[in-house]
Hints:
- This is Methyltransferase.
- Residues 52-182 form the Methyltransferase small domain.
- By secondary structure, the protein is α/β, with parallel strands linked by helices.
- It is 30% helix and 26% strand.
- The chain is globular, with a radius of gyration of 17 Å.
Amino acid sequence: MEENLLMQGERMDEIGFGNLKLIQKPEEFCYGVDAVILADFASKAVQRNGSRYKRAMDLGTGTGIIPLILSHKTLLEEIYAVEVQPDSFNRACRNIQLNKLQGRISIINEDVSKIEVNLSDLEGSFDLVTANPPYMIGGAGLINENKAKRIARHETTADLAAFIRASAVLLREKGELFMVHRPSRLVDICEACRKYKIEPKELRFVSPNKNAKPNILLIHCVKSGGPELKMLDPLYVYEDNGNSYTDELMKIYER
């Protein structure tokens, strides 16, 4: 029974995307629009490149939402994911079981900052990496007393550079990194990408609506890629009334 997979404080949500279901614990962390638009951003590259893309890795996967959406939107044969928090790792494993995707998705309990040492056997073996790192610099802003939320939102274990360094280790030559982050960290992102020889190629800003400044960015990078950055059209989450998703968001959510 599906209910047997639930633990105290958890809920099971039907999230669409081919009738996918997701176990979440609201008092710790629930996925947001950033994870959905990142998965869609990456899936379009897989669709463009067809059979050349077989293997993907998601860094900081939480409950496994991005691998789940990728499994629906793409024909990727193998999707790996890394999560440092034991409870979130356990939840992600149960989500894979819940959706009967054990044959395609594998979850690893590991710190992103230790991938180079502890997962050296995976070096250079991925066509694509997705990353949704903690947005806040360690110690910056209001620190949440809830440990799970603090680790998910603040750089308490692996920082931004560690996510990019891990991506460089995991990707094959010309493999692609897709990341979601905050516009305020754009310089840090580009600096770290150049340091680890992952070249930014496409940038898309995301705003709550057409009248608001961007509060999210999507960036696409290529390992050992040539220097040229393309600005994509902005993405707007809500219509001007602020109550309904734009047509593009509805299409991304497949509604």
